Amino acid sequence: MRTNRAVNAGESTDEGSGSMLTLGIGASFLILTFLLIPLLGGFVVHQRVQGAADVAALAAADIASGRQPGNPCETAEILVSGAGFSVRECRLVGLISRITVTTNFGPIELVARARAGPSSAT
User: Fold this and answer.
1) What is the residue-averaged pLDDT of the chain?
2) How many structural domains compose the chain?
3) Which domain covers residue 89, as residue numbers?
4) Which pLDDT band holds residue 1 (cuts at 50, 70, 90)?
5) CA angle at 65 for the pair 61 and 69, rounded to the nearest 5°
6) Residue 92 domain flag
7) If we measure between CA atoms, which residue out of 122, 80, 76 comes closest to residue 103?
8) CA dist., res. 122 & res. 120, Å (int)
């Protein structure tokens, strides 16, 4: 019968393996953290851009229908720029307004589109 001298002498052959496991888990945690935080931040900014597009489209549709005075696209631009974003496209087809809003989130351009108008026209 063969015996391992290191085991018989009370020495372990896997010294440091727990440290490497801890280091690997810690590195994985840091990598996931630094990837998820910007991703979640981008989601929040996109929701804000979508909300600005929705508000601008509703305001433009109100003006196009005659409920409010003014220029639909100018009003949409004022509302969107007040939120810190920019209007890429403002189009009116009859009483229906279509608004495209953009912003930059780091190197990524976030785009949101909204459409509003009377229920009989949409």
Assistant:
1) 87
2) 1
3) 46-116
4) low
5) 90
6) yes
7) 80
8) 6
Task: Count H helices and E strands in the chain, helices first.
Answer: 3, 3
Asked whether residue 100 is domain-assigned, the answer is yes
State pTM to two decimals.
Answer: 0.72
Higher pLDDT, 122 or 106: 106
Give 24-50 as a DSSP string.
Answer: HHHHHHHHHHHHHHHHHHHHHHHHHHH
Across 1-122, the runs of DSSP E, i.e. the strands, are: 86-93, 96-105, 108-116
| pLDDT reading at 17 higher than 90 | no
The region, left, alpha or beta by phi > 0 then psi within -120 to 50, assigned to residue 101 is beta
Q: At what angle do helices 17-65 and 72-82 cross, to 10 degrees?
A: 150
What's the rounded Cα separation, in Å, for the pair 38 and 65?
40
Residue 101 has pLDDT above 60, yes or no: yes
In a domain? residue 4: no
- Both structure tokens of 43: 């989601």
| In a domain? residue 32 | no
